[in-house]
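In response to the reviewer comment on reproducibility (Comment 2.3), we provide here a single inverse folding case reported in full, input and output, so that an independent group could reproduce the run without further information from us. The structure tokens appear first.
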């Protein structure tokens, strides 16, 4: 979560700590970034940190709750209501833009955080799940709308389709980190888009596949 992808400035001490924590945890993992690292990156002090969060675990929960709120309130670039098939394509493009910003050297932050979970991290797991669900709601709402309009086949299940989008994005982010190659992500998402379109009830031809960027 960097300022580039947030629609409003994050300038208070609390906001700077949350933003710095997200970036450091994304790069190094939650275990790999210390409180001192976060304070240095956010130009804040320990008294401010403990006043707002109490502990590193408290910061993790607050950070995830802030991410969930921002997703629900539409404050993150590229995450917005999907109103058409072209909108779904743009949703995927927004994901690629974020991966490209990090030169395909980082996977999805939520996936990174989830991969660190142990059996004992139940509360953090629940917090991560809430963020996933807030993000998934946008794709789910799109498919629910299409279903209500009779534009999807009878066997199309909006919940499963939204979960599939999540799974594809997670897999694509991991592949992009391993290959450091945008083309791998685009091929994966292209196939995912075509699969989603296969549930359309009408007999229109599928949209043209993305032309890979040069």
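Designed residues, in position order:
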């Amino acid at each position: 979560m960097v300022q580039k992808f947030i629609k409003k400035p994050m300038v208070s001490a609390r906001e700077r700590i949350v933003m710095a924590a997200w970036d450091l945890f994304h790069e190094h993992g939650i275990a790999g970034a210390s409180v001192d690292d976060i304070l240095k990156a956010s130009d804040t002090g320990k008294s401010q940190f403990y006043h707002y969060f109490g502990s590193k675990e408290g910061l993790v929960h607050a950070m995830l709750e802030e991410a969930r709120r921002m997703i629900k309130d539409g404050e993150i670039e590229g995450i917005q209501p999907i109103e058409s098939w072209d909108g779904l394509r743009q949703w995927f493009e927004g994901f690629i833009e974020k991966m490209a910003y990090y030169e395909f050297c980082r996977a999805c932050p939520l996936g990174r955080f989830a991969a660190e979970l142990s059996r004992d991290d139940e509360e953090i797991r629940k917090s991560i799940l809430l963020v996933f669900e807030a993000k998934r709601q946008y794709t789910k709402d799109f498919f629910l709308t299409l279903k209500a309009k009779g534009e999807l086949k009878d066997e199309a299940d909006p919940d499963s389709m939204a979960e599939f989008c999540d799974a594809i994005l997670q897999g694509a982010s991991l592949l992009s980190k391993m290959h450091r190659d945008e083309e791998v992500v685009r091929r994966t998402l292209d196939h995912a888009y075509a699969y989603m379109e296969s549930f359309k009830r009408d007999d229109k031809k599928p949209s043209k596949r993305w032309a890979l960027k040069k």
